[in-house]
Design brief:
Elements lengths: L1 E2 L4 H10 L4 E10 L9 E4 L4 E3 L4 H15 L9 E6 L11 E9 L4 H14 L2 E6 L3 H10 L4 E7 L13 E5 L15 E4 L4 H18 L4 E4 L3 H13 L4 H4 L2 E2 L12 H14 L10
Parallel strand pairs: 7-8, 7-10, 8-9, 10-11, 11-12
Antiparallel strand pairs: 1-9, 2-3, 2-6, 3-4, 5-6
């Protein structure tokens, strides 16, 4: 069961474009402090906006220029690029510079836009492997769905996944569950929260072994208390893992300072911690 759509916003944009022309406004490049990174976009229709380049007066002016193009008031019907300095003249104090491209598009451009925007959106996503289809797992899927992640949701049990899942979520049945570790995408962030401590331990050991050999799992998170982690450390040391290797594991998971054990609260804390692991986020699309 899988849903691998790059972005619901792209689908919404292209669906409307089939009926109505628009101007695609995209951040081409930036300098200094700016609201959004290169690659961010919004589609400006005569009566609707889809996406955002950061809001504020920058977006207000961009919308006006795009609608002037739509109305035929622009000097050229082709793509244009403009420079915006985010200073007092623009009413924004970010201090940086944004270069925006303005591209008139219509139904005939849909195939090219689908390929270009879809590929860029997928390339910008960070892979996450979630082991466990319990209450916290279900809550995490909903919280992570709109964020810049591509999620593999893995469990050893039948019937634990819902009939439909959000875009960019792939459900995988694996028995034994730790066998799925070998095929995880490089640079995956791993979250371990299966229905049993025995499975958690096996998945964790498989992740540590892979990271020892390939060094390509930058975050390995285990749900549980400090007591659980203390027990797991002893068992993993008995399997030959070093203190340095065990230091790569995050347990408990989630940013500190968030109280509450409800699945939804845990999911928000964990999602925030995953976002912190993205040191240099690539250009993203809405």
């Amino acid at each position: 069961m899988a849903n691998t759509s790059a972005s619901p916003l792209i689908e919404t944009f292209l669906s409307r474009l089939a009926r109505q022309p628009a101007v695609l406004v995209q951040v081409a490049s930036t300098q200094g402090s700016v609201p959004r990174e290169a690659g961010s976009w919004m589609a400006v229709f005569s009566d609707r906006l889809i996406g955002t380049i950061g809001g504020g007066h920058l977006e207000y002016q961009a919308i006006a220029k795009a609608r002037a193009q739509l109305a035929g008031a622009a000097a050229t019907a082709g793509e244009v690029a403009l420079r915006f300095a985010l200073g007092p003249a623009l009413g924004q104090c970010c201090g940086g510079v944004v270069y925006l491209s303005f591209q008139p598009v219509s139904a005939s451009d849909i195939p090219a836009l689908a390929a270009r925007l879809g590929a860029a959106a997928l390339d910008a996503l960070v892979p996450v492997a979630l082991f466990g289809g319990g209450h916290v797992g279900h809550a995490l899927v909903q919280v992570l769905a709109p964020l810049p992640f591509r999620l593999s949701w893995i469990d050893s049990r039948d019937g634990v996944f819902p009939d439909s899942v959000p875009p960019r979520v792939v459900c995988e049945h694996s028995e034994p569950v730790q066998a799925a570790v070998a095929s995880l995408a490089p640079r995956s962030r791993v979250l371990i929260m299966s229905f049993s401590h025995a499975e958690d331990l096996d998945v964790l050991a498989a992740c540590l072994k892979r990271h020892r050999e390939q060094a390509d799992l930058p975050y390995i998170g285990l749900i549980g208390s400090k007591t659980k982690w203390s027990t797991f450390k002893r068992r993993l040391e008995a399997r030959g893992f070093t203190p340095a290797e065990l230091a790569h594991v995050t347990c408990p998971i989630g940013v500190p300072g968030i109280a509450g054990k409800e699945p939804e609260v845990i999911a928000v804390a964990v999602a925030a911690q995953l976002l912190q692991t993205i040191a240099a986020r690539p250009a993203t699309l809405p």
